[in-house]
Design goal:
The relative contact order is 0.15. Helix 3 packs across helix 6. The chain folds into 2 domains: about 70 residues, Roll (Ubiquitin-like (UB roll)), CATH 3.10.20; about 80 residues, DNA polymerase, domain 1. The protein contains 6 helices and 5 strands.
Amino acid sequence: MAGNAASIRINGTAVEPPDDPRVSLLDLLRERLELHGTKKGCDQGACGACTVLVDGERIVSCLALAVQYTGRDVVTIEGLAGEHGLHPLQQAFIEHDGFQCGYCTPGQICSAVGMAAELERGVPSYATGDLSTRKIAPSHDELRERMSGNLCRCGAHNGIVAAITETYAKEDR
């Protein structure tokens, strides 16, 4: 991944930050780089439609200034798919009908990928029963709590939870 410390790596490509330090990461992605998968929902950080991954952690890009992410790796929904096809969670969303209108889907998927990394690291949530455990099982309540910041207004929530459960709820946790 070429680029200097003053660039932002977006889906593996070095991108110069905007000259205007007030530009949000969301606006950089959508308006300047034409990466339209990341959606602008509330523009207040409340709906999760703009969720992307920064160094593997989920953030709402509407509240992030692009210049804050120089030297960091940003992955959008477009960057999740690999050379061999869709990310397993993207495929599970299709199989479980985890979307209706599809507007929230990119944010839901990016958030769930970040959430899975949190579970692996043992980061507790409000629903975590045992705070001393190193690996947290992705139970039904745990998944719903961790995904509560991503809203689906058209009613695909059950399919979303089913897709996440199939992808990340393995017996070896």
